[in-house]
Amino acid sequence: xxxxxxxxxxxxxxxxxxxxxxxxxxVTVTADPKYVTRKDAPVAGKVGLVSGGGSGHEPLHAGFVGxxxxxxAVPGAVFTSPTPDQILPATLAVNSGAGVVHIVKNYTGxxxxxxxxxxxxxxxxxxxxxxxxxxxxxxEDSLYTAGRRGVAGTVLVEKIAGAAAERGDNLxxxxxxGDRVNSNVRTMGVxxxxxxxxxxxxxxxxxxxxxxxxxxxxxxEPGRHKIPMENADGITDRLLDPVLxxxxxxxxxxxxxxxxxxxxxPLSELYIVYRRAAQVIAERGAAVERSxxxxxxxxxxxxxxxxxxxxxxxxxxxxxxxxxxxxxxxWGV
Amino acid sequence: MVLDVTWAVRWLTLxxxxxxxxxxxxxxxxxAIGDSDHxxxxxRGFQAVLEKLAEAQPETPGAALKLTAMTLMSKVGGxxxxxxxxxxxxxxxxxxxxxxxxxxxxxxxxxxxxDGIVARGxxxxxxxxxxxxxxxxxxxxxxxxxxxxxxVLGVLVAAAEAAEAGAVATDPxxxxxxxxxxxxxxxxxxxxPGAASSALILRAAVGAAA
Lengths: 333, 210
What we know:
The complex is a heterodimer of chains A (333) and B (210).
Chain A: H1 11-22, E1 27-30, E2 35-38, E3 48-55, E4 72-78, H2 84-94, E5 100-105, H3 108-123, E6 128-133, H4 153-166, H5 171-183, E7 185-191, E8 211-214, E9 225-228, H6 232-247, E10 254-261, H7 267-283, E11 287-294, E12 304-312, H8 314-321, E13 324-325, E14 330-331
Parallel strand pairs in A: 3-4, 3-5, 5-6, 10-11
Antiparallel strand pairs in A: 1-2, 2-4, 7-8, 7-12, 8-9, 10-12, 13-14
Chain B: H1 5-21, H2 23-33, H3 38-56, H4 61-75, H5 80-95, H6 103-121, H7 131-146, H8 152-168, H9 193-209
């Protein structure tokens, strides 16, 4: 294992500390318990947005703290959800009195820890709504699984719900926008290589040199199946088909196309995937109105990507275009 | 053997030792069907429990378990933190402020722990989770306590043996809850890490009473 770290046990501490130093104008980092808040939090009259999850997915979530997006991010240990004793103070710190929305990826640990924190916050008189993100089409949503996972669609939920909060929507309205994004976005991912959790020291799963894993979540944990390596267009089709059919995209619809890197794939390759995905969507008669390409929700140094499609309407498009100023996303300001 | 606060502290100390000793094994189990963090998280959580116990010096077994619950909930993370936190919290409530635990109350506490895990995680028997260790353990504890000649040690041994058998019995199961459920059929042939750590915890309880 070769990593730019000092000690596997201090990876998150030192990384979040560095993040705070690099973006001191945007965020405040609280060290113990660990959370990151928007510099001007709580913003008077505004609904607070809090998200969080295991570390190792950077820039998610701290990279999305700032104007027009999250008010707080709560980082856990690598690939491990944060705990209620972090989530609660982060929630209280961004509550202006207008209530707080928790944006939670549907992973058992995240759900249980945010649920516990929400109970505690409500006991302290803070109104909480939870937006559960479960955009991953690789997992069958059935009684026999923990349900679809929350993956790259989370970035889109955070951006658009954040814009709704920034324009002054109330608690229920912000949560409703978040739910609307979630129900209109689908994602599927692929891993070309595994990744190595620093404290584990060995790759988190096995893939042969000529094998890829289709349907991974954001930890490289398996989804559908392993298949032999294919070219970019072939892989793109395998990811995009289930996304488009699950979403039921038809001719004339407008979409946002998001190609997300898992951390170890160069942008040049992500654009090759984007090219094919845009072609396929155009062939289906739908229009790609907005795009996002880059490493926004990663799995450490894993090679691979995910493709997300969000069905747009005029309001979601306006909220997507609204100003945002965070470490990882910035436009309009 | 009386189960008092000295026993409780010894139990939690042995839990911490077991997690440190089995850290790599639990990581390996989790690597196969999860995300490789269970051993690390449990080790970190119980080391923190030891520090808290040394600071706070609880006076009853219930107080020691409550402190454990709060520490695990705040230090473990993942699904295991809230699940074990809830288990220890419910067990602590069942013990109340008793200075010593009799067999019936011990069985009640183990049942309460199991019920807490089920309420929080919403898993059922056979889903390949820690419930598959805790349900047989709670039932064996109740049966042992119902026997008029039952001793606290007898209850603990029955619970530990049932948990160990339950953990082994998760090997062929297909996971239906937790991260392993994403693997579907591929989760069969691996032991559930949560069931495995549950068995270690209940075995440590026997060690502390022996």
